[in-house]
Amino acid sequence: NRTHKDRSMNRRQFFSLGIKTAGAIGAAAASNYAGSNAWAENATAADSPTADALGKRNGSVSGAYQYLSVAMDAYQDGQTTRLVQSYSDSGGLGSTAFVYDNSLAVLAYLRRGTRGDLARAMLLGDSFLYAQAHDPTYSDGRVRQAYWVGPFTLPYADNDSYFVRPDGTVNLVGAPWFFTGSSVSDMCWVGIALAQLYARTRKPRYLAGSLQLAQWIVNNAFDTVGLGGYSFGVDGNNQRLSLKKLTEHNADVYGFFTNLLAPLTGDSNWTTMGQHALEFVEEMWNAADGFLYTGSNDGTTIDTSVVLEEVQSEAYLAMLDPRYASSLDWTKTNLVGTDTPQSLNAGFTGNLRFTGPSFSDVGRRATEKSGPSDPLPDPDAVWFEGNGHMAAALLARKRKASRDLPTFHGDLATASEYLSHIVLAQSELGRGQTVNGLAIPNGSGVVAASSVLNTGTGFSYFPNLHLAATSWYVIAAASGNPYQR
User: Which of left, alpha, beta for 460 (phi over 0: left; psi -120 to 50: alpha)?
Assistant: First the structure.
């Protein structure tokens, strides 16, 4: 049922079942727009205020944290072991909590780091540890792609339990989605969150959980065939997906092993294991055009059919290597568009425009449905998680205006522009949405996309409130880098 055949899977694709619920993925949000233009106006080549200061000035960062906490407490509150529903109810996935999204929530809470934030980050971290120790089938330290975190009933799914089931096991996502596989990237992001928790708290349990995940990656995905690197992970039946190798996954492994585990443990073996991933990433470099290919579908030949935004920005954040810095320039000139009410199939009206990257080069020009049940996409749709990725990467690179591309005014100014459009989306999109039927305050979270966005990889994003988009916003607003201590 894919519009684009044989595209590379990324961590967000549903690799446990042939059924694709592309129409269910999405996100939405809101925030106080007053003063949001300050992001771009105040970011000059010579002297730009930090994104963190600007976010505090207009209140949007506080609003984002409000959404994170409302969503976290939607089914259970206090010290109850739990994770957070990834999308607002309008996303159609019930109480599904993807571990990638929840890992970013941990990192977002750690960025601000108030006493309450730290308590919430630790609770989510402890919930990951609980999932590792109480899987209904495996005892090897893995986590699954997602969990159900609260009861809900849909015509095609019936779940009557919370994150912890009455028998003490964690609540796996069953029919119709079966998000029960374990990808390398998901393991990395949970491991990164736990490692950062350990770096902040020095509580050994977080480092132990992180190390379990790292060892699982080595045991289940380390590969020496063809392009080497680390393969995709395992599906819901625990079958190793050994042919699929993704640049994003290997960049995650490098950042996790080399930048976090090696210095936190003092064990240079993690540097060696990270180098193995880096060698794969280096093979994916397109020097002529200045971007990274997505990966390989057979483990041996490079897939050149689709180029992903997150590969460019996240790989740069993980490596901080000037040799690959031009991938950010390729992204801001090839993937970034502006969504207006006049765009094809725009999802909003009024005097609004949103600028930022699409998910991929294919998505940037897609006019066909991703799946038969999806609405027609808007090729100009902005992927707001991508705005966060790019802003964080540009704030890490810090290129001056005098060295920037024509019509650009330095990395701080460009990052500020991308962040300003997240702030506008907070204010204007995703109003009236709910989580577990409870109203999400307008002006708090961030939507996944400005309009329906065909990713070009088999699923779509929608203007539904999203935990990851909101978390990446506050991480970038504080000039954060999840891969670095």
Answer: beta
Which structural domain, as residue segments, surrounds residue 125?
22-477
Q: Within 13 Å, how many C-alpha atoms sit on residue 418's CB side?
A: 34
Q: How many domains does the chain have?
A: 1
Asked if 380 contacts 344 with a C-beta cutoff of 8 angstroms, the reply is: yes
Is 464 part of a structural domain of the chain? yes
Q: Which of 420, 417, 389 is nearest to 312 (CA)?
A: 389
Answer yes or no: is 334 within a domain: yes
Tokens of 132: 């590792």
Residue 4 lies in a domain: no
**CB-CB contact of 433 with 86 (8 Å):** no
Cβ contacts of residue 330 below 8 Å, gap of 6+? Answer: 289, 290, 291, 312
Task: Report whether pLDDT(27) > 50.
Answer: no
> Residue 375 to residues 22, 451, 459, 466, 477: CA-CA distances in angstroms?
11, 10, 11, 19, 32
Q: What is the CATH number of the domain that holds 151?
A: 1.50.10.20
Report the candidate in 40, 34, 33 with the shortest Cα–Cα distance to residue 417: 40
Mean pLDDT, the chain, whole residue set = 90
Count of C-beta atoms within a 10 Å radius of residue 199: 15
CA 149 – CA 81 distance, rounded (Å) = 10
Backbone angles phi, psi at 346, to 5 degrees: -60, 145
pTM, two decimals, is 0.91
Closest CA to 380 of 348, 415, 350: 348
CA–CA dist 173, 158 (Å, integer): 10
Averaged pLDDT for residues 156-160: 90
Q: What is the pLDDT of residue 156?
A: 84
Element holding 72 (H helix, E strand): helix 60-72
Q: Tokens standing for 463?
A: 């203007």
**What's the number of CA atoms in the CB half-sphere (13 Å) around residue 281?**
24
Q: What is the mean pLDDT of residues 329-336?
A: 98
Instruction: Measure the CA dihedral 54/60/64/67, to 10°.
Output: 170
Cβ(136)–Cβ(146) under 8 Å?
no
Confirm if 471 and 478 have CB atoms less than 8 A apart.
Answer: no
**Residue 9 falls inside a structural domain:** no
- Give me the pLDDT at residue 403, please: 97
* Cα-based distances in Å from 150 to 81, 143, 144, 424: 12, 18, 16, 31
**Alpha-carbon span 187 to 232, nearest angstrom:** 11
Q: What beta strand segments (E) does 198-247 contain?
A: 233-234, 245-246
